[in-house]
């Protein structure tokens, strides 16, 4: 029997200009539906696990299309509630050469931001699950959404399910102060924290500053602070070292509260600068 | 010197599925920007007039794309205000054979619905104009928008400019009662009324009912009622007579308060059923 | 709880030339995956039922794409076996004006035609099912496939599940003699027969022949023969009456062994001649 | 009030093969309309200036499309004359990997090359303008076109407007001798010269030759010669230093007749080799 | 051994707007290469004959693409000369509903219009040929082209090859007077004349005029006149009878100088109105 | 008179996902037809030679499309036999960034693998030819195909035509043992061997092993072995030296049985990683 992982968050409609066109030039958009939590569910299905995605979409063909998009990759969508006003949208203009990519968000008033915790039955949702994953984006959407994430984390913990959060602090969605307060509160229910972000209160030690190189000591210092503050079992993050506009090294750092594990770097050339 | 016509209303982003695809099937949307009032301005530019469009769009690349779209056809966009949250969107799935087209609106909270009349300088806008045109859709968006339309109509009338309105009652946007009240009030400033719609209070005379044929007497009766109630100089409407799913006859009826003019019908076959 | 319907058959890759192009002109193919039985499962999911599709596809990305295509519409694909050599393909050139559509089949050696009945656990497959549907295409693929269909029909009957078959005799796949023998044998397990086809042995009564009109008496005579021979509970068929190259009337005829039910005709204009 | 810049030159239809296809492979062309002077006008509109483009296009839908293309970006096209035979065309096959891009010109007999200076009212065109920009391509098209450029430069100078020219010597359009003579003559009306090109008569000093590196002294020597000969207020050029097929450094050199200004180099990786 | 047919004429680049877009809306053109004479050669290859096409195209990749396009359908292109300035172009905007299609020609100065008869070796070209076909469009391009067509017709006749011409009088290319004179002269070498066109001097008999119906007597009268004047062995034409914007009947009329043959009419619905 | 080169092998339908899409994501495939031997014929036509391609394709529109595809580039296809069941297919998913390309073959039972040598008249095929080229892929398809290649090589040798083979050992098509045996046998008829492959029996000398650099001595050793064993007049191969995922150096090594010729390396950056 495959392991079941539950993820919870927003799924949005992404509209991308084709062929590196600018917004003012395009006569069409490429359509996809996604979000951090939905993408994790789809990726896990690809690896043979059962990925269950929990969210809310409007009861119209755009909401249905988001659900069908996930179903295509085998995601279990039976716990996606239907209702509310709209699916959040973001527009993406892919950069090229010296022109950067740009994103326009149109996500206010989305169905997930106005859901009610009572619409979800956590006993059914978590039945047979071994892991629950969410991100710091959902609690930023609205107070209702933050309360919903907390209720889900509490229900998972009560059932002995491993919980994880990808911090992913979004400056456009809420203030640093509110994000710090809400995320610190939620992290008490979290076993595995993903993301190296000072949003939980870390203040960088001056001596760790180095320019143009990967500041590994700084990350270790931050992970130690985070673990001390919130009691995570594991903290993990990908680390990027930029060599040029299109060449980056990627590695991963994991901390189990005791020891640090740092993978070897690999250079990947991005397709566009 | 070309005649100048000012139109005022909302411009929206239209996202259409290509090749008769359903929403749940499509991987792309065709992009266009339009609305009744913007389309009138563009059509008049095609005929060699000066078409000035008044509206409000968000100060982001999607708003800019709407403006550039109109500029392409020569529309004067200098009085389109920038600001607010978002451009209204509607999704269109083109029907085929026995499947009807369907539209999903996502227009709440658009910039035009939250504009402020003080953002527009009617003296500049109407300078040199001979005609002002708007529709019954804009006042349906919000109370602010209705007040804005009224202010524009009053300013145009005060300058001796001919005014016209396309009634276009939208049941999804407001109740029949509110629409009737607001539109009847606005029509006191209107010279030319377009659209044969009972929303101004007309109650059909039973004896005019005929099935499967164009009820010309009914339309004449309605036009007479509308002219009596609001004092329009002209009332005009296109009339459609359906022969089958894809064959329609089109004609136009005009009333000058004195006499009726009915054009000859022409049959057009629609491209899709 | 939604009703569960199981369908069984082949799913193929369909490659269609775009924009009415001919095979020798096209530089691309539109891709879809389908088959009569798979399409029924997807359509039932659209209506809110549980559609379970049973088949076999190759254990490669093309087979996976066929599965994902069905998942998109909510079809339960857990009982699609993986293995064998290839997915059947058919190429479609859409006709236009006076040029007819043409189809090129490349389906020999497909995974479903070489499956083994032991790969499927009918107890699991039919658990909770109320209806089992298949067609006369699958038994035409190979002797193995015919044995598989018989085993499935027998298992369904043994569990008291309603069974249906769409006769769909394909002259390119097998001879009239073999089709008649195999289909007549399978029909002993069938409750509902779909399709007005003389393949079960019916010989038309000369007096029923009429030219250019729907020969309703002929169909009734055939249905009566079919019911007498195989003991179907219901026989049903859509009936087409051609008025011109692009105008057809469609109606449906149903026979319950006692009485005939004939729906009203509706004219649909096809998109292309 | 925004500054007004007038540019004058040819606008052509560019037909590009998509997806790196070769001319003999493509079944479609991507369409755009442009030219050095038109592009400058569009770019200045992007920066908030008023860009007025002066040209001549045929009085047919292709000419209209060129105008609408510029309007989209806000360019003032009221002084584009209509008439003549055709819009110049060039075909572009985008190279890939070891295959170079190639261009096929089909520009003979274009409307701009056969215009008449009397079609343009320079008093209206330059009203309120602060800058006039043109290039060395337009005078190469025909004697009429060269006379037109001279008339425009003289009119601009007479009104105290700053004038600029991008030399851009095209060997396919005229001989070195004729180009040198005509451009040298036109440059007497030019304040700002763009382009480091020996076409004005500069003969390189042997001692400045260096291989594989940016020969900055050579450029300075040429700029000094050009300033002495024609009395430019400013001379400017972009300088490219090639590191490999796809890596180039770009910098700019400006000379005010007194001092040289050289910007820092930036390396850009081109999208294709 | 297959029969060999030689055709001679211009091949042009056709640029079509996709998806019923207008010229001012399109961002791409569909590309094809053709012309009446080239299309006949390709169609004959489809039927298994040897189709040899004689023409001249520029010695650049656009000319090569025209050749490769014909080769794709098996046309023998060894006698297409290379040289001259350009390939003729025409732009096509496909109409839709009440909007008519429109064509913009840009064909002046094409390679074929400036060829020299000495570039073609008729002994080689006609070796083994049984039929030579051309049209009345080529002699309209230039005096050189008319002389070339005459030389080809004379060479074919001298070798006993059957000759045919499709009159196809184009008002945009030459005057009625010149067309009448040149075509009448060329027709002395023609065995089979295609097209019912008064350009050879026919003046309609008033009594044959009928409105809204196929005037078969009028066509017979014209064919008789044409046969008398030029001595054709056969005259043939397709005849169209319009029932509505999108329904046409097509038939063919043939005259062998003795008897008329009129095929049965068939109604075809055009794809667009 | 151009030199004539005959090539013999399989031509397949290649279906490629567009825009770096994965198989499970794509709604379309780009279509092309090719194979090593067909591509050589097309490339030689580009250089002005006569390229004659010998193969067998099914007698259906897909086979015809393969032939027309080659004709487009001027390939002589008169000796492509028609018949058999199907054209071999392969599906290509183009990789991007860290995701590798993948290929799915569906080539079993192709027409060429089931052809009969008697279908081909080598006297006609080789008339006037100077070179015959084939590859090690065709004999791997079936015993019939291997016998066919041998017959063709023998016929060419008997006529004094230079013969070449590109070894191209495919592990998916046959075992190392069978490939070694069959290819060694065929090589007795071969003048020019292309490819540095140990399949002819070469066992690498340990001392030649070097890591991360081009092992030129190893290749020379292998070429010497191959020449000794089979008596080739020339052995040639391209050599790739990988610097990173997207940077490769390419050079060529040729051995005439006496001396080695090694071209200078050139670095090419691949478009995708």
Tell me what the structure shows:
Six copies of one chain form a homohexamer. With 273 residues, chain A is α/β, with parallel strands linked by helices. In chain A, strands 1, 4, 5, 8, 9, 10, 11, 12, 13 and 14 form a ten-stranded mixed β-sheet that branches. The first copy, chain A, starts with a strand and ends with a strand. Chain A has a domain at 4-190: UDP-N-acetylmuramoyl-L-alanine:D-glutamate ligase (3-Layer(aba) Sandwich). The first copy, chain A, has helices at 36-46, 61-72, 122-125, 138-141, 143-158, 176-186, 216-230; strands at 4-8, 12-16, 28-34, 50-57, 80-82, 89-93, 102-106, 129-135, 162-166, 192-194, 234-242, 247-255, 260-262, 266-269. Chains A and B meet through strand 3, helix 2, strand 6 and strand 7 of A and strand 3, helix 2, strand 6 and strand 7 of B. Strand 3 of chain C pairs antiparallel with strand 3 of chain F, so a sheet runs across the interface.
Summarize the structure.
The structure is a homohexamer of 273-residue chains. By secondary structure, chain A is α/β, with parallel strands linked by helices. The first copy, chain A, has a domain at 4-190: Ribokinase (UDP-N-acetylmuramoyl-L-alanine:D-glutamate ligase, 3-Layer(aba) Sandwich), CATH 3.40.1190.
Shape-level CATH architecture of one domain in chain A? 3-Layer(aba) Sandwich
Distinct helical segment count of chain A: 7
Number of strands of chain A: 14
Rg value of chain A: 19 Å
Can you identify the CATH class of one domain in chain A? Alpha Beta
The proportion of residues in beta strands of chain A is 25-35%
Task: Name the overall outline of chain A.
Answer: globular
CATH superfamily of one domain in chain A: Ribokinase
H-E order of chain A: EEEHEHEEEHEHHEHEHEEEE
Main interface by residue count:
A-B, 29 and 29 residues
Biggest β-sheet of chain A, characterized? 10 strands, mixed
Helical fraction of chain A equals: 25-40%
Q: What is the CATH topology assignment of one domain in chain A? A: UDP-N-acetylmuramoyl-L-alanine:D-glutamate ligase
Low-confidence stretches of chain A: none
Structural class assignment of chain A: alpha/beta
Rounded average pLDDT of chain A: 90
Alpha-carbon distance between the termini of chain A? 44 Å
What assembly state would you assign to the polypeptide chains in this entry? homohexamer
